[in-house]
Each structure stands twice: as C-alpha cells, then as structure tokens.
Amino acid sequence: MKRNLGPLYAAPQTAWLLLFFAAPLGIIVIYSFMRKGLYGGVEKAFSLAAYRDLANGDLVNVALRILLVALAATVLTLVIALPCGYSIARSRSQPMRLFLIIVPFWTNFLVRIYAWISILGNEGFLNDFLRAVGLSRNGVQFLYNEGAVILVLVYMYLPYAILPLFTSIDKFDFTLLEAARDLGASRLESYRLVLLPSIRGGLVTAILFTFIPIFGAYAIPLLVGGKDAYMLGNIIADQVTKTRNWPLASAISMTVTLLTGLAAILFLFRSRKATLPIVEESGIGTEGGGGFTAGSAA
Questions:
Q1: Which tens digit of pLDDT belongs to each residue from 262-294?
Q2: Helix%, strand%, coil% for the chain, nearest 5
Q3: C-alpha 200: how far from its chain's center?
Q4: CA separation for the pair 199, 169 (Å, rounded)
C-alpha cells in the first residue's frame, strides 16, 4: 500500500506561510485590540480604542483622498496598459516588446523613483527644458503633489497590468472581431462588446495587481509626494515610528486588509459568474439596414 506523501511535500510551504504570513498577521490582530503604551508599544490590556480612533473625521477624509488617488492611478494604468497589451499580442516581435516591458524590473525600485525626481525636480531635466525655451523663468513645481504621485505610481505598476492583459489578449480569437464587423458592428463596438468581455480574467488580474499595492504604497508618496500626498503606507509608518501608536497602526492595517481582501474575493466571484457575451445578427437584410447586438455579461 502506497503512503500518501502529499502532506509531507506540502510541509515546507505550510511552515513558510505560517511563519511569515499567519504569525505576523496574528500579531497585528492582537496588537489592534491592545492599549497604547505610555512610551510606545502596547500594554497587555484589552481595548477597542484603536478601532474607535478609526472613526476620526480627519482620518476618514484622508482615507477617502487616498482611495481617490488609488482609483485614479489604477484607471490611468489600465487605460495605458490595455492598448499596450493589445499591441504586443498583435505584434510579430512579441519577445522584443515583452523584453522592453520587463527591463525596468532589472533596475532597483528606489533608483527608478530618484530618476523621476531628477526629471521632475525644480532643477530637473523638465524644468531646465522649460527655462531653455523661455516658457518658465523660476520653474514649475512638478514634485511634491498628488499629480507626481499618480504619475510615478502609474509608471511603476504599469508592467503589472500589461503582462496579464497581454496574456489574455494573446489567447483571444481575433476572427471574432472580424465576424462582429461583418454583422454590422463598428470597430469600437466590436472591441467593447466582444474583446473586453473575453479578456475579463486579464482585466480582473490587472486591477488587483495594481490597485492593492498602489493603495498601500509607501516609498513613492514619501519621496515624490511630500506630506500632503501621503498614502496609507505612510500613515501606518508614522503611527509606528513617530506617534508610536502601535494599536492604531495595527487597526488601520487590519481594516484595510479585510476590506481589500473582501473586495478582491467579491470581484473574483463576480468575474467567474460572468458569461461571455452572445454575438448575434440582428436585422440583416431587412428594411432599415443591419445591426449588431451582444448580450451583456450575466
């Protein structure tokens, strides 16, 4: 009788997840229900003060601003990534184009951020160009605002959106677009009603791979955004290192983890339930001309 060695093979992975994922998460949960220490840290006493502090009006306003920034960066990333993924999928030089997309990963994260600082800074390349052509005498403040944060976030996380979109589009049967055009659909309608529903999985993956890390970004807002453009990661770091309110930092982390996790699960569940649109001919050969209809995703 053969022994089932599956649990033995899975033991290293299980130990890794318990040690480096479950255990730190459990510590954060426990700290969020403790009382803030007088000189930092926590006191071993049960308290809901950290969760009550989450209802602070200033913190709620900051959270809403961060949400809007994350949504704007995610939408802009998808708007750029979708045509890029389509272009790569239709190109005969896919390896070269994919290589160019992956090249930025070979450079250190901080080096890329400082490269943008050298471009957008008051003495950077962009302001030097504006002074040279006479469009600005004192320079333009491109850095230390939400616009700079969104720009650099889009640049940093664009490959994470392009790659899953390319994978989905590359598997798409492009003859369906030709069939839709033959049935009377315009080029835009064929893309909207046939292509986009067919690559739903890639879109979902791209959204999850961009929105969640953007929402909790730390280094980019700190270096190019300044105090007024802080993101969630900066707020949590300040609570730990400056105000030393570990319970509040833990409560913020747990709340965001639960909300983003729940949103991701619901998003994936709805995408799996969705069906591909039904393409059918409507009114071809009848008086009034032809048309194209596509059933909406369920």
A1: 877 887 777 666 544 433 433 333 334 444 444
A2: 70, 5, 25
A3: 16
A4: 6
Secondary structure of residue 280 in the 3-state scheme = strand
* Rounded Cα gap, residues 260 and 233, in angstroms: 14
Residue 165 and residue 101: Cα distance in Å, rounded?
13
pLDDT score for 7: 79
User: Could you give the C-alpha distances from 71 to 50, 68, 77, 170, 208, in angstroms and in order?
Assistant: 27, 5, 10, 27, 12
B/e letters for 203-231, b = 16+ CB within 10 Å, e = fewer, are bbbbbbbbbbbbbbbbebbbbbbeeebbb
Q: CA dist 54 to 4, 136, 251, 253, 266, Å?
A: 48, 44, 8, 11, 24
The Cα–Cα gap between 257 and 259 comes to: 6
Give φ, ψ of 167 to 5 degrees.
Answer: -60, -40
Phi, psi of 6 (to 5 degrees): -55, -50
Residue 88 neighbours by CB under 8 Å, 6+ apart? 94, 97, 98, 101, 162, 166, 170
d(CA 111, CA 109): 6
H or E element: which one contains 46? strand 42-46
- Residue 263 in tokens: 């949103």
The model's pLDDT over 111-132, given as tens digits with 9 standing for 90+, comes to 999 999 999 998 889 999 998 8
Distance (Å) of CA 282 to CA 17, 50, 288: 54, 59, 11
Asked if residue 220 lies in contact with residue 143, where contact means CB atoms within 8 angstroms, the answer is no
Task: Please give the domain boundaries of the chain with CATH numbers for all domains.
Answer: 51-249+268-294 (1.10.3720.10)
Tokens of 77: 């990333």
pLDDT beneath 50, residues of the chain: 275-298
For residues 260 and 210, give the distance between their C-alpha atoms in angstroms, rounded to a whole number. 12
Neighbours of 146 (CB within 10 A): 19
